[in-house]
Amino acid sequence: MMTLAISLHVLSAVIWVGGMFFAWMALRPVAANLLEPPLRLPLWRDVFGKFFPWVWLCIISLLSSGYFMAFTLFGSVANFPSFVLIMQGLGILMMLLFMHVFFAPYRRMKQAIEADDLPTAGKKLAQIRMIIGINLIIGLVVVIVGVAGDSLFHIVNS
């Protein structure tokens, strides 16, 4: 069961953080260079429409697998090692930032595109881009904390 939990946890982190990395580092600059707003904005609406359901699944998987592993290995929150607490805190912050994007600027961007209000849609896309950039940095830090913390934890406890 622990192997399944670890696998789901890592896979979910890879999908979410990797998707943000791809969107930020590859898709965003190419779309901005090649497409005018009347085409670029619907592209992003549809890309997010395909990616965001995966993020929701990743959130469910990360929470369930993470807490399963933590409580199985350490018993209670009081026994969680500091690297687990850091991952938990930063992960919850990422989830809250994603939920804000999903329920506020993304929803408003879709509404603005439907109303053919491209300036408003562009402003909402800029907000989404900024928050995803912040979430990407936090996600990369979480990956480093998880790998380094786990390695250090095993070295200290061996």
Distinctive features:
mainly alpha, 5 helices
Notes on the protein architecture:
The chain is built from five helices and no strands. It is mainly α. The protein has one domain (2-150). Helices cover 90% and strands 0% of the residues. Helix 1 (2-34) runs antiparallel to helix 5 (118-156), helix 3 (82-103) packs parallel to helix 4 (105-114) and helix 3 packs antiparallel against helix 5.
Q: Distance N terminus to C terminus? A: 23 Å
* Rg (C-alpha, Å): 18 Å
Largest sheet: none
Judged by helices, strands and strand pairing, the structural class is mainly alpha
Shape: elongated
Overall domain count: 1
Low-confidence stretches: none
**Helix-strand pattern, N to C?**
HHHHH
Number of helices: 5
* Percent range for β-strand residues: under 5%
Mean pLDDT, all residues? 96
The helical percent reads over 70%
